[in-house]
Amino acid sequence: MCADRLIDQDLLPALLAPARQADYPRDSRAFVRIDTSLRVYWHTLFDICPSLLTLAPPDGLALFRPWMAWAEQQQVSMNWTFYLWVAAWLEDSPFAGQLTDAIRLELMAASAARWAMADRSRALGVALASPRLADTLVLGWKNQRVDGGREVECLELDAPLPPAPAPFGYFVLAQVDQDDFPGWQALPR
User: Where are the domains of the chain?
Assistant: First the structure.
């Protein structure tokens, strides 16, 4: 089938794979459709976590393309865990030496905010932790008021919790003042 006559259903396997763009001429509709699909993920990543651009200036593509290839290979979800999977990949990538705790926290906060926006369960919040950031929780809270918004906070713990599983652990919070520790859940794929 001619590259200009492909429909999205035909392109579906290529819509998340930057390497597949090379399969199509740059002036074809298929190339443009794949590029448009990938730009959504680029903006989702770098607009929300702009400090990542410091790892791979000027446009982040040296980071973005291998991350997307890894995500496709690992079949990770692009839901609220998106930013956590980026962080997990970065820890074992050529960019690992450039990672800072500030970038790790930015990625965790982005995931917590995304959870708070997208989760439809009765839970009010989510707590995220990384074994690399001991004694720190990132909390994301759902909006509880008509005029309010999502809230994300970083909490330094006085007493440590059991270590979170690698690469991240999480638990949901049924109430704002929850006192018990329900145990860590591993990231869903």
Answer: 48-186
